[in-house]
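Working notes for the structural subgroup meeting. M.R. asked for a predicted model of this chain before we commit to crystallization trials. I am recording the input and output together here so anyone reviewing the notebook later can reproduce the run.

Input as submitted:
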Amino acid sequence: MAVDMKRQIAEATRTLLVEKKVKKLTVKDIVEECQITRQSFYYHFEDIPSLLHWILEQGMEQIMREARSQQDPEAALRYFFLMAIQASPYIRKTIASNYGDEFKQLLKQQIYRMFEQAVEEDELYGNCTQMEMKLLLRYHSQAILGLLEEWTEEDTRNLDFIVHEVYLLMTGGMRPSS
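Returned structure, recorded in token form:
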């Protein structure tokens, strides 16, 4: 039952940010939207940043489960991009809210963690030191965040090319042209 209530609260938050375009998200708005008491909100979440953290964590876990079911790592990366593009309206609205800075930090942490998990599971960068691997993970997660932040319709049309090139960059397969 608790997870269902958490999902209801998360859905109310998404509705407020995306459909009702609330810029200043408050607990009062959320509890009114999902018709619960403030006590119920605080029973499930410490505050709005903890709610946003839970939403991101649940979304990333879902993406990781689905990505693992893809035929290969490049297809998993493509799936990640597709989910990020689909979630972009929610992400942009949340960043534009009064919790934008906290959300951006949480997003960075979650994407880094997701790539870290993928690297461990696929045993990538095995010949790197721990320090080198952390640098590569920071670099790639920030680069992908930057790409997604500036994403355009043209990028969507060229998704397969972009995914392939990013995959080559991440796996060391890109070679300079002659």
